[in-house]
Specification:
This protein is an alpha/beta fold. The chain has eleven helices and 13 strands. 42% of the residues lie in helices and 18% in strands. The two termini are 36 Å apart.
Length: 318
């Protein structure tokens, strides 16, 4: 049986990885909704060359209710990845972040209700939880410290409301720091560092570099999404899952690991340049993934060193 699946933001980093992953698995017919403000249509072309499968693309914005309804119609499930993802951007323009991340999510859930689409996977973030003593788990009371984090928490609340009110199985996955192929356009730490190494520019770290993150490889996130698509939640408290590696890595450790990969490929890592810390950013963060292990059957397969090598090859087209 083929599952008809809408992926919003499917031309983006995680979206392109998910398209390739699911097409390689088989059993999926994919439709992508993307306004191409951040994603790249060429990523879908790359997926086609690798898999031999074309993907239907609807060029449109999730803030448009009519387009959201058109995209959802006829689907069996929705994976909602489209979002404004920058903490820094949310500080300068919180209204736009809320329009995209909250109203866009509402539009899609409404479209699911109207067209009887009963499964919905929402890409949330550890930013919804805020600055808390790690590891982060689903029992901690969320206290976001940025408008971006607040917008993701609002999305989680909408998922719970549409599950409780309309029976839509709306699972929220709180991704930690995802990295991997198809991230050439991203401003994330791994992507930015690899670009700097490639072009011989200094690596910029905001703060002392001892801030920590949970770096999870994109392929592991794709596995988590597929598992969530088949999960039947018990109640509204069974909708949110932490998805990460479960390991804490500092930015300085990340740079050290990248130095190893660069030297394996005949390059030296440029000097590290420190800038002042940025407002709204969390100091320490990594996930407790026990609930995802026990209930979804999620288990990360790719460690940081292996994941960085895979990501490096994608940036250098090796």
């Amino acid at each position: 049986m083929t599952t008809k699946l809408l992926i919003t933001g499917g031309c983006g980093f995680i979206g392109a990885n998910l398209c390739e992953y699911l097409l390689n698995k088989g059993g999926y017919q994919l439709r992508v909704l993307d306004n191409l403000s951040a994603g790249r249509q060429e990523y879908l072309e790359r997926v086609y060359r690798r898999t031999g499968h074309r993907i239907e693309l609807i060029h449109g914005d999730i803030r448009d209710r009519g387009i959201a309804a058109e995209a959802v119609r006829g689907m069996d499930a929705v994976v909602h990845l489209a979002a404004k993802t920058s903490v820094v951007d949310s500080l300068t323009d919180p209204e736009e972040v809320f329009q995209v991340n909250v109203m866009g999510t509402l539009n899609l859930l409404e479209a699911c209700r109207e067209h009887s689409v009963g499964r919905f996977v929402f890409a949330s973030s550890n930013a919804a939880v805020g600055e808390q003593e790690p590891p982060i788990d689903e029992r901690k009371v969320p206290a976001p410290i940025s408008p971006y984090g607040a917008s993701k928490l609002a999305g989680e609340a909408l998922c719970a409301a549409y599950f409780g009110s309309f029976g839509i199985k709306a699972i929220a996955l709180r991704f930690s720091n995802v990295y991997g192929p198809f991230s050439e356009h991203k401003g994330s730490a791994v992507a930015e560092f690899i670009r700097c190494i490639k072009h011989g520019k200094p690596l910029v770290i905001y703060g002392d570099g001892k801030q920590t993150r949970d770096f999870v490889y994109a392929g592991d996130v794709c596995r988590a999404i597929e598992l969530a698509l088949g999960y039947d939640p018990k109640d509204a408290a069974d909708l949110v899952f932490q998805i990460g590696s479960g390991k804490e890595t500092s930015l300085l450790q990340l740079v050290e690991a990248l130095q190893t990969v660069a030297r394996e490929n005949g390059l030296e890592v440029p000097a590290v340049h420190h800038e002042p810390s940025r407002a709204g950013e969390i100091r320490r963060n990594f996930s407790n993934i026990d609930r995802a292990r026990e209930r979804l059957g999620y288990s990360p397969q790719v460690g940081v060193e292996e994941g960085l090598r895979k990501t490096w090859r994608s940036f250098f087209h090796l």
